[in-house]
Amino acid sequence: MISLQQALWSGRFAVGMDDSTLAFTSSLDVDSHLAFYDVMGSLAHVRMLKKCGIIPAEDADSIIAGLKVILDEVRKGEFELDYSQEDIHTNVEFTLTSRIGPAGGKLHTGRSRNDQVATDFRMYLRDDALKAAEAVNQLMMSLVKVAEDNGDTVMPGFTHMQHAQPVTLAQHMMAHAFKFSRDADRFLDAFRRMDKCPLGAAALAGTTYPIDRHMTAQALGFREPTENSMDSVSDRDFVTELAYCAAQTAIHLSSLCEELVLWSSQEFGFVEMDDRYTTGSSIMPQKKNPDIAELVRGKTGSVIGSLMTMITMTKGLPLTYNRDLQEDKRPVMESMETVISCCTIMSKVIATSAFRKERMLEVTSRGQINATDLADYLVTKGVPFREAHGIVGAAVRHSIESGRNLEDMTLDELREFSDRIEDDVYDILPVVRCVERRNSYGGTSSASTDVQISKAIEQIMLRDEVIRQETQLIENCWKQLAEE
Predict the structure, then answer these.
(1) 281 catalytic, yes or no?
(2) Share of the chain above pLDDT 90, in %
(3) Could you confirm whether 302 is annotated as catalytic?
């Protein structure tokens, strides 16, 4: 049996927890990752208690000194965990009290583990959101650099995995880049919504002590306190939202990786990945496997699973705190770690891959990929588009049967399908011309992709500045709390 002295809630109970109960309810293996944030939250809380005159200044100073020692141990990885205690919060408080005496018991005045853990976890995920946005930004920059080097690299654009229209590799890379741009924005949006401090909400109803929640919020780098004490301790929207952000990013990563796996095959031959980010076969000497891309694609499942865990866990919980919420940490911690590492490694994969321009151009000669341009040409000659579509469809059928591309057919052959076709048709049929004529905003011409690249770089730079400012603000708060 576990001694009652090892539980913060022991007064009500005649005997301590059974060992099996402790083992089942303990969260220490997960929430030990919150140790740094727990100590920082306690430093902010005790300084507020001191300023508001809620506990004696002498006791507050003793607590602060003891917490600073624990903080130093946590930073150095030297803080020893006692697994007979159920969580990191108990570990910190009991260690503090064992070192400084009864004054340590005054630290918990005016707060509960409910608001304490909600604050710790917000601080932890707030940092993760910034790290994720930065990692996604770096991946986006790698894609942009490939686009900058390939504004004239023509390749097939696909729908249904069939050749659709010619595009440039720059356009294709920028399509992925803007997906990741939205992902990075989502992480920063989630950061802003979680940037409110629950500390001081106590168990659920607030506290009778004259605390200053704005002071603790500011000390911990939060924009403001949360507005409602019941919502403060029961809210896990910020966890689920971040799990969604991670899942959406993982889906975009998986799409990119799927293409790289296909493109690196002999059938496509569009790309060769750097030796440093591929592996070989234990039996087939010739193999060069795109394992990084495949692993990232495979990890998407666990990240999506973490989102499903959070949605299911919270779907039927009554107000306010329920012990179910102890299970909120592992899924999102793991999914955020996965996404950050995947973005980091894929940034390197993209930056070091060799894209084969000649091969990409070669395969655009298949599948009558310029058919839409011929239809558009007929429209400029006064043919309604739906009629033009039928005319070109017949011409395509003939080109397939004769084994030739549209641009290889003679003018007399083409005029059999419409007398509106003239010599100038050969100005629009080459795939390079098909690409350059698509000058609409967001289109695939080199002029259009140049605009996209400039826009993407602007987005990256703006986010980098936001990340830098928010990171600096938080680090300044940590420095001030540790040094005062």
Answers:
(1) yes
(2) 91
(3) no
